[in-house]
Amino acid sequence: MLRKIMLARVLIASFLFVPSSVLAQNAKLIEAAKKEGKAIAYGSLESDTMEAIVNAFKKKTGLEVEYWRASATKVMDRALSEARAGRPTADLIITNDNPLRLMQKENLFQKYESPAAKDFPKDAVDPVLGPRYRNVIIGVVFNKSGIKAEDAPKSLEDLVNPKYKGKLVMPDPTQHTTTTQWVASLHKLMGKEKADKFIRDLGAMKPILVESLLPSAERVMTGETPLSITYVKYAYVFGKRGAPLDYVRLPKMMGDGHYIALAAKAPHPSTGRAFIDYFLDNDSMNTMAKLGEFVNRKGVLPPLPDADKIGFVEMEDLSEKEFAEKKKEYQQIFLR
């Protein structure tokens, strides 16, 4: 009898010390996934981050995920065109809120309640898309070799000071969906009147326009352009590689929430669900945070200095019609 009690205690102790990422994986789900071969994901999450997660997932489960990375706009366009043609390829879509909402209107996703969702704040869990796994925060990043900290802008309004003309790079708001959304949402930080003036002044600065937020950060990393509107996390990401980067400490910064969604007609649904479980669990979220991501899993923060002091303001969602109208409006402001 004593031996049985001791054995039971050992089993309980073993269970308690199993990593949460293992517990989140249902054995039957993993078995079903192994029969499917692999999952295919489309997303805008950076390739190096996704590669680290996919490799760890494969090591833990033996399952593979094939990833195609592009801007949020291109991810949305490809997923929609394939679905409309009746040839859905992706099992998973990993990108930001607004494009996902537009895809959701065409019933591209199915609901999946991952057991890992319990470790996210309730207000960060969408009824269909699940947990908002990270916030991508847009701000002003600068190269300290080109601009001293004391000479850097102190606010967004400072960014349109004539002394910075020719020194600013940003994604093209007439093409890049997230930047269109960011510019259209500036009123949430400044009020409508100030925002309208700031947008016109920003266009008059003739900023260098690039395809997306990553090229914007790369130009400031190399020092080719000393000031950049980009993701704040890049100050940490490229700083680790030796670039002398910092970011402007604004009390409030706008950005977007990102989700991982299961396709309604996923060719490999079990593998897709198994990957969502791992993706949202502790191991994966800590991997992202260490790479500078602002993840929403409770108690996990990035190592970016003063990250805990950033007041996050979520950008407004725009309809397809509103996107088209804003892009046309911004052509007159940024491309004239």
CATH architecture of the largest domain: 3-Layer(aba) Sandwich
**SSE sequence, one letter per element:** HHHEHEHEHEEEEEHHHEHEHEEHHEEH
The dominant shape is globular
N-end to C-end Cα span? 85 Å
- Determine the CATH topology of the largest domain: D-Maltodextrin-Binding Protein, domain 2
* CATH homologous superfamily caption of the largest domain: Periplasmic binding protein-like II
Mean pLDDT: 90
Q: Provide a count of the helices.
A: 14
Describe the fold and architecture.
- It is a single chain.
- With 336 residues, this protein is of the alpha/beta class.
- It has two domains: 25-135 and 257-304, D-Maltodextrin-Binding Protein, domain 2 (3-Layer(aba) Sandwich); 136-255 and 310-334, Periplasmic binding protein-like II (D-Maltodextrin-Binding Protein, domain 2), CATH 3.40.190.
- Helix 7 (177-184) crosses helix 14.
- It is globular.
- The strands form two sheets. Strands 1, 2, 3, 4, 7, 8, 9, 10, 11, 12, 13 and 14 form a twelve-stranded mixed β-sheet that branches. It has a two-stranded antiparallel sheet with strand order 5-6.
- The protein is built from 14 helices and 14 strands.
